[in-house]
Amino acid sequence: METNEGTLDRAIRITLGIALLSLTVVGPQTLWGLVGPAASKARQTPVRDARVILEIAEPPTKK
After folding, report:
1. Of 13, 6, 19, which Cα lies nearest the Cα of 46?
2. What is the rounded radius of gyration, in angstroms, for the C-alpha atoms of the chain?
3. Most-buried pick from 12, 14, 36, 63 (CB within 10 A)?
4. Is the pLDDT of residue 2 over 80?
5. Cβ pair 29, 53 in contact under 8 A
6. Alpha-carbon span 48 to 58, nearest angstrom
7. Cα(48)–Cα(34) distance, integer angstroms
8. Count of domains in the chain?
């Protein structure tokens, strides 16, 4: 399975991960911040993972 990640996607994921991780230190100080490392480290989008788990056919890729 190829990764679904580009430069913009990577930047958004890292920013979102850092923002969520900061929730454990500042702000409401909840465990939701622990989602941050997963968001910043994930190499595939959740939609694609859900398709694989649910065995939903993906649209064909253009070559």
Report:
1. 13
2. 14
3. 36
4. no
5. no
6. 8
7. 22
8. 1
Closest CA to 37 of 53, 24, 51, 50: 24
Whether 22 maps to a domain, the answer reads yes
Q: What is the pLDDT of residues 3-42, one digit of tens each?
A: 556 778 778 877 877 787 787 788 777 776 676 666 555 5
d(CA 59, CA 52): 12
CB contact set of 56 (below 8 Å; sequence gap of 6+): 50
* Full domain range(s) for residue 44: 7-54
Dihedral class, residue 11 (left if φ above 0, else alpha if ψ from -120 to 50, else beta): alpha
HSE (side-chain half, CA atoms, 13 Å) at 55: 0
Torsion 19-24-28-33 (CA) sign = positive
Assigned domain for 24 exists = yes
